[in-house]
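STRUCTURE REQUEST FORM
Protein name: RNHCP domain-containing protein
Source organism: Geodermatophilus telluris
Requested output: structure tokens
Priority: standard
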Amino acid sequence: MRVARSRRAENTGFACVHCSAAVPANTDGHYRNHCPWCLWSLHVDDLPGDRASECRAPMEPIGLVEKSGKGWQVVHRCTACGHRQPNRLVRDGDAPDDLDLVLSLPWL
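Status: completed
Returned output:
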């Protein structure tokens, strides 16, 4: 049985699995799931927001897509199982994503 958790309760800071930076909670009203400085993430979801994945491996940023209603998204690929997941960019708040790094990613 899964315990229901609010997104607000999950919007907390974390240590980046790739660069070890202290990543602050997002302050722009959206949930942060990747490091703003290296763009790496962690495979924690089977479906966006469910936190049900047992994989827990690092996810590498591999490219960009544009999705209607969500704008540009970074596509992450799990380094263990290959799962791919697009994630919304963080453009505002206390720690926005590194725009130079974002723009260095290829369009997919």
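Reviewer notes: The CA atoms of residues 67 and 108 lie 12 Å apart. The chain has a mean pLDDT of 88.
Form closed.
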